[in-house]
Design brief:
Helices cover 26% and strands 29% of the residues. It is of the alpha/beta class. It has one domain: Rossmann fold (3-Layer(aba) Sandwich), CATH 3.40.50. The chain is globular, with a radius of gyration of 19 Å. The protein starts with 27 loop residues before the first strand and ends with a helix.
Length: 288
């Protein structure tokens, strides 16, 4: 039995932060950072069956192309992904009345749709990048037992050597995306490793009043090659999504619209239309 201090529930027997139980959650889950993007997606549903919200976690479950889909906002950062992934899994794989593990495991397809900055000059602003791997500069997965079993050790070690990785920084773990979901999303997109940072400014090499400890980090990321793999973009959620998803036996994938090219110093004038295209294309790929 999972104690109350470890598995926190509401009075209605829903998992606390996301305010969900297993029946509220479809097998296909789209996660987005922005709360407003939930409605942007669910307005395309033929029917909305369920809505809830608690703090930054807004959830709509409904029907698109005859298939049940859940859309959930996570907020920004790997710390929020830590909450969402653990609580989604608890909701679908633990009996919330008895606090006992269910006898059979339920595996979710979890697709993050977001925005990101490109680290390669040939990836255009408003293009779409699908993450083949999440390279975690955030350190989250290092707090979980057995993370080494899912780590792409060759990529991690190669990156540390290439970047002269500082010894005081977290070990840069690397986890592969779901092959099943990659096959659905790869056509017409750019595929590559996504670097995940624990912040928006210094951890991504930005400098305003504070100087970054690795001011040339972006150059190391852009120049990195490991076999056929290169680092395509920078954001703040994918490594945790992939790492926790794999440890919990869920299928995970990230697809992002590029709103800035960090190499060419270009920023989109209006990414709203590109996000809408990402949403409609992703819904079609997920349901056909």
């Amino acid at each position: 039995m999972f104690p109350e201090t470890e598995l926190i529930l509401t009075k209605e027997k829903k998992v606390y932060h996301i305010n969900l139980s297993g029946e509220d959650i479809a097998d296909d889950v789209i996660v987005v950072g922005d709360q407003n993007r939930v409605t942007q997606i669910s307005k395309l549903f033929s029917k909305i069956e369920f809505k809830t919200e608690h703090r930054e976690f807004v959830t709509h479950t409904g029907i698109f192309n005859g298939k049940r889909i859940t859309v959930l906002s996570t907020g920004i950062g790997t710390d929020n992904i830590d909450i969402v992934m653990n609580e989604l899994d608890a909701a679908v794989n633990i009996n919330l009345e008895t606090r006992e593990l269910n006898p059979s495991h339920r595996s979710l397809n979890i697709i993050r749709l977001g925005t990101s900055g490109a680290l390669q000059a040939d990836i255009p602003v408003n293009g779409i990048v699908v993450s083949s791997h999440g390279l975690g500069l955030d350190g989250l997965l290092n707090f979980y037992d057995n993370w080494q079993s899912i780590n792409e050790n060759d990529i991690s070690e190669s990156f540390m050597k290439h970047s002269n990785w500082l010894p005081n920084l977290p070990y840069p773990y690397c986890v592969k995306a779901s092959d099943k979901l990659i096959s659905k999303f790869k056509e017409g997109t750019h595929i590559g490793i996504t670097a995940t940072a624990p912040g928006f400014y210094g951890p991504q090499g930005r400098q305003i009043r504070l100087k970054a400890s690795m001011p040339t980090l972006n150059e190391f990321l852009t120049d990195f090659k490991h076999g056929e793999h290169r680092i395509t973009n920078f954001e703040m959620e994918t490594s945790a999504l992939y790492g926790l998803g794999k440890l919990l036996n869920h299928q995970c994938l990230t697809a992002c619209v590029i709103i800035a090219n960090r190499v060419r110093k270009e920023f989109t004038s209006d990414y709203t239309k590109s996000v809408e295209i990402l949403i409609t294309e992703s819904l079609q790929r997920l349901t056909t």
